[in-house]
Amino acid sequence: MSRRRSVLLALAVLAGGCTAAEQPAVTPPYRLEPACPAPTSPTVVSAALVNEVVAVSDLPYWQAGDVGASARLSDGRLVWVFGDTVRADGVEPRLVANSVLLTSGTCVAQLLPPGEGPVVPDVATGQVQWPMSVVVLPPSPGLAYRGVDDVVVVMSARTERGDGTGGLLDFRFRGTSAAVFTVTDGGAPQPLEVLEVTPDDPSTTQVNWGAAATVSGGWAYVYGTRLTGEPLVFGRELYVARLPVADPADRSRWQFWDGAAWQADIAAAAPVLSADGGVSQTLSVDRVGETWVAVSKRGGDLADFVYTWTAPEATGPWTPSRALPAPAGYDTGRLTYAPLAHPEVPLASGGLLVSVSRNTTDLAQLLAEPEVGRPLFAEVPRP
Question: Does the model's pTM come out above 0.90?
Fold first, then answer.
């Protein structure tokens, strides 16, 4: 099967093309601890309040985590997906590759699989799933018939960890996977399938599809980032594809932006943003009102400032604007990276909520003081 056909087949299935017979039985089911009822209306907050909730959180299976992409379920709850996650002392394993929280107002619940391991299982020993983005889609007719309210799709980087001798960057992106969950009657997301969106590829210059994802105007947009391999260029190119939310299983309607038009050939995809002054490996892209907004470090994860880019269309043209200082921290051991916007969280100020992942190069310190690895939230002007 060609690379293009395999990519499109996986994406069609993840979006709702499974039949009832293909849905795996999960016994026992995933569960939420504690139970957070759906909000009666969206809670209007501030970055300070969100930081306070994060600071006082003392969940056994979530003490700290990075990335923290978010989306809103149809019942008003928010789903948050995290990468490497520290758990409380006495919980084994102490560190897992991913976790999921659901929030309703200031109530925070952990999504726990049987065995309390990572929510998206590791691929194999040494190869894990690092979440990059999350979207909530309406269910396919077959899933709706079975009472499903939402389909949650977590786009993950299949990542091969090194042996620890290569330092902080001792890992390799192998391809993109999609973990699909269904949500029914305000319950816990239940796994439907984990699919290989792109096949394993050792290339360091492949497109990391799923680096950002969002839904707007009947389309689900999936962004990809790519290192060019050029000397001293640490920013990444940005690419975009889209599929129709109403009929995601129709592979013929998957489209890739080729620089001038949408078309069906993935090999013809062209960057919408260049690597020079480009984005981080993961970022957020959302339609905020009538404006498309991307949030990332400018110049890659090693850069020192968070930027917003605005555009009239999902494809650009993109105009950058400096938003927040966020020193990379490789010289101090206190890291900041992977800024993301959360436009689905209304702020009293009318601004845009942005999170910045934090970490330390000292693993012993992270395990002893997980708060140093919790995201920090801030407000920036809403375009």
Answer: yes
